Amino acid sequence: MPISRRRLLGAAAALAAVPALAACGGGSGGGGERLRVAFPGGGTRESLDPHVVPQFVDQARAKACFDTLTGWSQQMTAQPRLAESIEPDATGTRWRIRLRDTTWHDGRPLTGDDVLFTLRRIADDATSATAASLFATVDHTASTARGRDAEIVLSAPNFLFPLSLGAPGTEIVPAGTTSFANPVGTGPFRFVSFEPGGPAVYARNDAYWDGAPPAPELEFTPIDDEQARLGALLSGQVAYAHDLRPAAARRLEQQGGRAVLLSAPQSTTQFLNLRVDRPPFADPRVREAVRLGIDREALVRIVLLGTGRPGNDLFGGPDLQYFPSGVPQLTRDVERARSLVREAGAQGAAFALQSSGSDPNFGPAATLVAEQLNEIGLRATPRTLDPQTYFVTVRTEGVSSFTRTGTLPIPDYIGRRRLTGSNENQYTGYRDPEIDRLYAAAVATPDDAERAAHLERIQTTLRAGSGALVWGTSNWNVGVADGVTGIAEARPNSLLWARFDKAAAG
Fold first, then answer.
1. CATH superfamily ID and name for 267-475
2. Under a CB-based contact definition with an 8 Å cutoff, are residues 75 and 320 in contact?
3. From the CA atom positions of the chain, what is the Rg in Å?
4. Domain spans in the chain, listed from the N-terminal domain onward
5. Collapsing DSSP states into helix, strand and coil, what is residue 3?
6. Mind listing the pLDDT tens digit for each residue in 249-281?
7. Which of 47, 99, 211, 255 gives 20 to 30 Å between its CA and that of 157?
8. CATH homologous superfamily for 5-17+37-186?
9. Ordered alpha helix ranges (H), 332-361
10. Residues 379 and 313 sit within 8 Å (Cβ to Cβ)
């Protein structure tokens, strides 16, 4: 999928057209004042390393200071950023990248050597990079650089390689970087200071290639509690509150005045994960009984307060590239579910529905799902785990868990989360060599129609038996102070998500 200069100019125009929002930011807006943005903090887990970004705030800080070669559009396609053009050879194993003419914050020019160094660093096990698996096929010895050009050589064809270059945690860093105590990037803001567990401050980069930000300074303020973030927004202490769940979003909609709600529909996928390698869900009849036994409409109405849509056991939404069309909506069938439980001899099978306070929706969802599954003859009991260790624990313990995933390109979702050996598959224990084969065929073909057919087959196969049940797709919500412009209603992980280089007070 070559990316031309014409497409680059189109992407730049789209970014410049970020919708304006209106109302009063007080002392926390943009223009001539410091822009303060509130995120859940990560405490000692927070990192200024742009390749180690497990927390939302880590990803947002990386976007402020650095740039990626591409970025993901709202439809999860690749758009050029630092890359002026990206072109494959006929085999899909050599990708020629031409960089835009720009400089680092210290005045040095951006070069192809910086790109090669970055990809080596991400792939290095010692880095523990978030996106390491995306670059496992890069041949770092054969790849070359000259001036603003880089040629990346892959050990296997991958005509979707530009998607990897826009993933969170793929920001380009200067060649030879050994420390991020005082990070130097090409991004819209220059690093000023960081207090672990406290605020991080950045100053405007007047030489930014996409135009100097309106705000002279940007401050990331850690506020873990969601209600406290909302309170800080409504009181004028911050101009932006990240990740508001349905109840807070409803409150902001109803209260109005000092702030507005920005909501990106169908931007997070809510999962109920079943371990297909352990009883009772090793029996496909019991898995199917759960699929038919949960009431997705009730879950959306009660847990999400109606701010989402019932799931269909498919990741993402219909406007994402490669999303399969024409798949009928799955509806509840209590009688069929009860029959399947009886056929499997699983009446009264007891198990825990594991959840945690790491997401306010998990607990209510577990309570409601337990009631629904008890109706079909299973004995499901909610169990709340420690949020600090939840996602590690449910990879190895129990037979069910709740997770959510922000928007991703469908090939990225499959490649990193549903193939044999992927971390996400540890929630379900699912393995299917045919899925691995189809995915390899999809990325190896230059024919987009053929690729789409492979990816659609993968998704319908996963839908039927992977144990990753999608009970709903929820909106992504943030709050913005009235009077602040230039912050978009953007899906998680997209180019425009958690970006502040266009933000200004009205």
1. Dipeptide-binding Protein; Domain 3 (3.10.105.10)
2. yes
3. 23
4. 5-17+37-186, 267-475
5. strand
6. 998 988 767 899 999 999 999 999 999 999 999
7. 99
8. Dipeptide-binding Protein; Domain 1 (3.90.76.10)
9. 334-343
10. no
